[in-house]
Design a protein that fits this description.
heterodimer; A: mainly alpha; 9 helices; 74% helix; elongated; B: mainly alpha; Ribosomal Protein S8, Chain: A, domain 1; 3 domains; 6 helices; 57% helix; 9% strand
Chain lengths: 182, 185
């Protein structure tokens, strides 16, 4: 498979296969980001779609002097923020579940979606982003800071708060923990 | 370190940081805290796994095709928007240029001299003035003749004429001579 700079260059020249390869590589990542930012599966699908429309239209502006994922994350963030401001569409859409045929995958998927909903419900947006990038994706706080346009120290502070909130929500269901801290 | 201290640390610190010093000592001797720690570690590991496995239900190729279509549509829409904007701006520029080049739009005017039968030229001017706008003009000859010149757009001229017909008519105006013929009995 071609390297990203080559795919980007070919997409700029109008190669649709190269663009499809970029989508294939980053779709899951963008979907996970969109899920965490929106907390809703349908919204995440819409955000994901819109992100790739913008990627195709704006790829000329990607200079390649920073990581592609950072550029992609900023687009996802903007699209998600815009989706939060706009009212939900009135039209009904065909359920996306039609593509999932493996029952095991469906169970895993539902668990994962439930997890994201829990994170979205527990954490404010900034902490949610930091927790996702650092604790769930395993990025260094400095990398997350660059992606979010924040200071390293602010990322660490948000991460500490996020982790504490998540940990408390995990422990809150444990009888020993609740007995000890009662 | 007691259980409460350890659990309050567990509630905020990364698990790795609890693997040293007093915290490690406590958890190695306290079965309950060890169990809770294992729960937290397990839950966080599962969380990462679940997150990694989360996939969009729409295939990437489908997303790519839709994105390409939408991008193409928007590009065409953008061309139309730009073309429309340029056309509107050009129209505006042309309109302004025409306006500036020609000055105010000329109004067709005509001049008519009215012979006054009863009113003086000044009185006639007063009668017609409300009907004559800035585009027109009323001239009273200095010679004192019973006439008045009116230059105005055709429509205003007609109004002035009908006003003079009404007020400068010897049969209807104040200056009319009323001849009373005595009747025989």
């Amino acid at each position: 498979m071609a390297e990203l700079p080559e795919l980007v260059a070919r997409t700029r020249e109008g190669d649709e296969r190269a663009f499809a390869a970029i989508v294939g590589t980053y779709k899951s990542l963008v979907f996970r980001w969109a899920m965490t930012l929106s907390g809703d599966e349908d919204d995440a699908e819409d955000i994901c779609q819109e992100v790739f429309v913008r990627v195709h239209r704006k790829l000329w502006s990607f200079r390649g002097d920073g990581p592609f994922e950072g550029w992609l994350y900023r687009i996802t963030r903007r699209v998600a923020a815009r989706a939060r401001r706009s009212p939900p569409p009135q039209t009904t859409s065909i359920s996306q579940e039609v593509y999932v045929t493996d029952p095991g995958a469906r169970v895993d998927r539902e668990r994962a979606i439930e997890l994201i909903r829990m994170i979205a419900a527990t954490l404010p947006m900034r902490q949610r982003e930091v927790f996702m990038l650092c604790d769930l994706e395993g990025r260094a706080p400095a990398e997350a800071a660059a992606m979010l346009g924040m200071k390293d120290v602010s990322v660490r502070a948000s991460l500490f708060k996020a982790r504490a909130s998540i940990r408390r929500s995990v422990l809150a269901t444990h009888p020993f923990y609740t007995d000890q801290l009662r | 370190m007691n259980c409460t201290d350890y659990l309050s640390m567990l509630a905020t610190l990364p698990v790795d940081e609890l693997a040293y010093g007093d915290a490690r000592e406590h958890v190695s001797t306290c079965h309950d805290c060890d169990r809770v720690t294992r729960v937290v570690v397990e839950r966080e590991r599962n969380m990462r796994l679940a997150f990694d496995q989360l996939q969009s239900s729409m295939p990437a190729t489908q997303t790519a095709i839709r994105a390409l279509e939408a991008s193409r549509r928007r590009r065409i829409a953008r061309y139309y928007e730009v073309a429309l904007g340029v056309a509107m701006a050009a129209t505006l520029v042309v309109m302004v240029a025409v306006r500036r080049g020609n000055g105010p739009m000329p109004v067709a005017t005509a001049t008519e001299t009215f012979r006054l039968q009863c009113l003086s030229p000044d009185q006639a001017a007063e009668v017609v003035r409300p009907f004559i706008t800035s585009a027109g003009e009323i001239s009273i000859p200095p010679s004192g003749l019973g006439i008045i010149d009116i230059r105005a757009p055709i429509e205003e001229l007609q109004k002035a004429r009908s006003a003079l017909d009404r007020f400068d008519n010897p049969r209807e105006s104040r200056c009319a001579v009323r001849i009373v013929v005595p009747t025989e009995r």
